[in-house]
Design brief:
The chain is an alpha+beta fold. About 30% of the residues lie in helices and about 35% in strands. It has a single domain, classed as Nuclear Transport Factor 2, Chain: A (Roll), CATH 3.10.450. Strands 1, 2, 3, 4, 5 and 6 form a six-stranded antiparallel β-sheet that branches.
């Protein structure tokens, strides 16, 4: 994450979510992936990720009736932007789909809505709100 390899980061998005976004937009999945990468590259010019930590010891795990396993991972990101350092505490969802693990940011309400459309088992799963603090 700190290396900001946008191609690798884009590969952490579950294929079903990419397909859902593509269907909504009426485009191919690769167009959605390219737009996602372009947006990350644009944003990386505005902010630099100084630190990114996942607290594996604080992880909560679950599994749906259909066998889909998932984990909620407490995440801390420190971003430098506009001469300030900002700390964001949130959760990252790790879910297994088709024998691969993917990551979903669950601090964004739009992202959570889409997640629940694609994976209805998450409808009743509560996600902790994110907290943002300016360090300096």
């Amino acid at each position: 994450m700190e290396a900001e390899d946008h191609n690798v980061i884009a590969q952490t998005v579950p294929p079903r979510m990419l397909a859902h976004m593509a269907a909504r937009a009426g485009v191919e999945v690769e167009a959605v992936r390219a737009a996602l990468i372009a947006e990350m590259e644009k944003l990386s010019g505005q902010a630099v990720i100084a630190e990114y930590r996942i607290d594996e010891d604080g992880m909560t795990v679950g599994q749906f009736e259909d066998g889909l396993p998932y984990a909620l991972l407490p995440t801390e990101t420190i971003v430098q932007m506009d001469g300030k350092q900002v700390q964001v505490r949130s959760e990252t969802l790790a879910l297994q789909d088709a024998d691969a693990w993917y990551l979903v940011r669950v601090s964004d309400p739009q992202q959570v809505t889409m997640l629940r459309e694609v994976y209805p088992g998450f409808t009743d799963v509560e996600f902790a709100p994110s907290a943002t603090e300016v360090i300096y």
